[in-house]
Amino acid sequence: MRIILEGADGVGKTTLANILAFKYGLDICHCTQHDPADFRFYKESVRKNNVIWDRHTIGELIYPKIFDRKPQISGEDVRIVLWNAKELDTKIFVLTEDPLLIQKRLLDRGGEDPRIFDNINWINDQFIFYAKQFNVPVISTSSMTLNGIFNMIEKED
Predict the structure, then answer these.
(1) pLDDT for the residue numbered 156
(2) What is the SS3 assignment for 51?
(3) Cβ(105)–Cβ(119) under 8 Å?
(4) What sections of the chain are H helices per DSSP?
């Protein structure tokens, strides 16, 4: 089993990744700014089995704009990586949440980079935009039940 969770900071990716990892016996891989974040890295990483990724490729199209750095991959690279992932039966989801709840979560956990906090609505909107572009289901973490998420994961394509 392979699952990729995408979404803005504070939407619940890590919480859901931990729940799913426990339920399905998966390892968690958290892609960060310290990973190579290039096409080869992402293309090779989706070949791993029994993994849930807490963030993967889509963020590399969004966060470079916030941090004023050059993206390591293009939109077409992301499209290819996600297509390859889907061919390997990877379940891919973009998580979203009410922007006020996201801001509350970020404030509660503290230490958030102000560039993320100040742009969180735009970041969240961008993940939803790319979900539509790449035909990835969107899950609202406060309105969908865990059983609903489990059903989405377990359904046959």
Answers:
(1) 56
(2) strand
(3) no
(4) 13-24, 39-45, 59-66, 75-87, 99-109, 114-118, 120-133, 146-154
The two tokens of residue 74 are: 């293009």
Rounded Cα gap, residues 80 and 40, in angstroms:
11
pTM of the shown model: 0.93
> Which residues lie closer than 8 Å to 93 by C-beta, 6 or more apart?
3, 4, 5, 6, 136, 137, 138, 139, 152
φ and ψ at 54, to 5 degrees?
A: -95, 85
| C-alpha span between 114 and 107 (Å, rounded) | 11
pLDDT in tens, 137-155: 999 988 889 999 999 998 8
Nearest to 144 by CA among 70, 99, 93, 108: 93
Backbone angles phi, psi at 13, to 5 degrees: -60, -50
Q: What's the residue count for the chain? A: 157
Quote the radius of gyration of the chain (alpha carbons, Å).
15
Nearest to 4 by CA among 40, 36, 42, 38: 42
Identify whether the C-beta of residue 127 lies closer than 8 Å to the C-beta of residue 8: yes
DSSP H or E segment with residue 139: strand 138-140
Crossing angle for the helix pair 59-66 and 120-133, nearest 10 degrees? 150
